Amino acid sequence: RALDLITAELVECRRCPRLVAWREDVAREKRRAYRDQTYWGRPVPAFGDPDAPLVIVGLAPAAHGGNRTGRMFTGDRSGDFLYAALYRAGLASQPTSTSRDDGLSLRGVFITAPCRCAPPDNKPTIAELAACRGWIDRELAVLHRARVYLALGKIGYDAVGALARSRGASAGDRAEAHPRLPPFAHGVEAAIPDPRGGAGAALLFGSYHVSQQNTQTGRLTGDMFDEVLRRAVSAAGL
Ligand code: DU
Ligand code: SF4
């Protein structure tokens, strides 16, 4: 399958020297609580339903979350929050995601990110995001039913907006037919050219990121996230 081929190439990627060093240093040094585990320490594959109409776009793997377990949003507080919400919405087979072999499957939703290696301070550089963009671009191109995007945070939101603009422009003049992308805000909703390069339009929602920094301070509550997720799920016809 097309996605499996992309994933097989992705996990060998060593294009960003700073991130390769960081992901591997973290994997070697580990966090005390996980010292008996073998960290993934590589680019983290996308996860979910290849026939999904809804695509969730995060930022980058967490050092001791995705970079440890090898699955998006898995093994940390961000993932606890996200997968519990997906389960409430009927999109996940179980409310938790703890490891690559925990049996979890998603239905109707696919999760990916614009930066695939854990970055220091959870902050990829502009150059690293530019280097990584080809991976998400290729994934979206083979998600044949994708038409609604839910970005977690401004970086994912802008990344999807940029892909939509460039794909739309290459597919004709539809990019100009769309208004400028509204600035990122929690709950924002924007019509965009299809980031897959298709003829139709797509819909982009923005939510505050599910980071512990946001969820523990109450900046993002479960209710706030459920509300945006519900709108995205409904727009996706799920
Ligand atoms: O082995 P596979 O069917 O290609 O699935 C790979 C991976 O994706 C597996 O860990 C489950 C997940 N997945 C899913 O969550 N939802 C689907 O509809 C299909 C696969
Ligand atoms: Fe490759 Fe992306 Fe990782 Fe850079 S961040 S090394 S482009 S997978």
How does this model look, in words?
The longest helix has 17 residues, at about 125-140. This protein has about 240 residues and is of the alpha/beta class. Helix 1 packs antiparallel against helix 5 and helix 4 crosses helix 9. Strand 5 and strand 6 form a beta hairpin. The protein has a 6-stranded mixed beta sheet with strand order 1-3-2-4-6-5, with helices on both faces. It has one domain (about 1-235): 3-Layer(aba) Sandwich (Uracil-DNA Glycosylase, subunit E), CATH 3.40.470.10. It contains 9 helices and 6 strands. The mean pLDDT is about 95. Bound molecules: 2'-deoxyuridine-5'-monophosphate (DU) and iron/sulfur cluster (SF4). Iron/sulfur cluster binds near residues 20 and 132.
